[in-house]
């Protein structure tokens, strides 16, 4: 009978096991640190992997406990567990060892050098009158994970993301499945991203995420791989995938979605130059503008630029409606410093709504030679219509998607330096900016403001919470109580949260 073939996983496991027996010689950069990694509760394979990884980074790692060892690294062990193990090794005075949690080694691997071995990384003794000298605890995450809600609208998520290396990886995977129109897996990764962003501590071991919702086995396996290897093999495969790279490039063009990207990819296009060179392609007006101003539109919009656009929009709107409300929404309202476009919500407290405002503003900007492109979409709202049952449904407001010319001198003078001029536009003193204008009746302003502020996952969960927990229907127009069969009025976002029985979440805490 033929011997079974050796798999890649078998070879990988063998290499890790060999690290215990015949470690590869690596340059020792940090002589003052002599590590011993405790196998207890860790396992032979994982220990071998960590030993080899530490050696590659320049650490001296001993396979056996010896007098030269200075630091003992343990995983899922308390201080008393390690001391109990040391007592059985007949090493004498164990106080000469620095006892550290695996989080210390993980952080060292991340930065490529030793970090301070104090605080959360130490296995330290409890300080209490009833505690015996051997009683010790490990530092635990500052948040009880059982308190993390499955709903983003019940979590406070700031821009301080402690787990960006994980969320960046999942964003790539989610985008890949979005390109493949696999909504289920894409949503699973988006929910994982959302919940990881709210955690006020950095994940350093798998037990840190016990009890956290939306982290299924597939998500956990990727988190574990990143903890162990510093990266995900699945993410690397996606980044090297030709289809993913092509779709990422094509969808960067204003007006190009998944269907057009799929069509171009099937036609054999892989670069934008190839698309532009094919004269048989019939591009829409929006796509032509997307190609024409691509360099500007793919660059980030700074907060100073958004503020400058706000002054242009407010001046134009109030030329026709002096009392109109003009509100900057989207990511900038949530405290972001950069974005890809600038969204504004407009409403008139006096007339309620003026359907001629946006057409008048468009004509004004055309006269001022500020308008590079526009697409005016008329309102489709029916007054008797109930809120949409779909969590991602578009609203029915009159809106205008446009590209404005922003002159550099209009940008706040506090900006540190003007944007660099490209070699192809050395004399160009302006930048093309994507702007969305949304016109809504004053009676629906609070709902529209809440919806257009985002984030997308926050809004998705807010609607899902209304449906499943409160038997209500919420969208950008209204909140309907299905039990009482009435529409609930709201003059502010706070009123909507009160109707839903939720604590108010500030805009800067909605970055889910």
CATH topology of the largest domain: Beta Polymerase, domain 2
Gyration radius, in Å: 29 Å
- Uncertain runs: 1-6, 11-23, 126-140, 421-425
Hey, roughly how much beta strand do the residues contain?
5-15%
* Number of separate helices: 19
Distance from first to last alpha carbon: 57 Å
Mean pLDDT: 87
Anisotropy-based shape: elongated
Largest sheet entry: 5 strands, mixed
Number of domains: 4
CATH class of the largest domain: Alpha Beta
Quickly give the CATH architecture of the largest domain: 2-Layer Sandwich
Helix content: 25-40%
Count the E strands: 16
Q: Could you give me the name of the CATH homologous superfamily of the largest domain?
A: Beta Polymerase, domain 2
Strand order of the largest sheet: 8-10-13-12-11
Structural class: alpha/beta
Give a verbal description of the structure.
By secondary structure, this protein is of the alpha/beta class. It has four domains: 14-138, 3-Layer(aba) Sandwich (Rossmann fold); 145-239, DNA polymerase, domain 1; 242-292, Orthogonal Bundle (DNA polymerase, domain 1), CATH 1.10.150.20; 301-498, Beta Polymerase, domain 2. It has helices spanning 8-21, 44-56, 79-87, 102-111, 164-179, 183-198, 217-229, 233-239, 242-250, 258-266, 272-277, 285-292, 294-297, 303-318, 330-333, 357-367, 445-453, 456-470, 493-499; strands at residues 30-37, 59-61, 71-74, 98-101, 123-125, 136-138, 301-302, 325-328, 338-339, 342-347, 371-377, 398-407, 430-439, 472-474, 479-481, 486-487. The strands form five sheets. It has a five-stranded mixed β-sheet with strand order 8-10-13-12-11, with helices on both faces. The longest helix is centred in the middle third of the chain and has 16 residues, at 164-179. It is elongated and about 85 Å long. The relative contact order is 0.08.
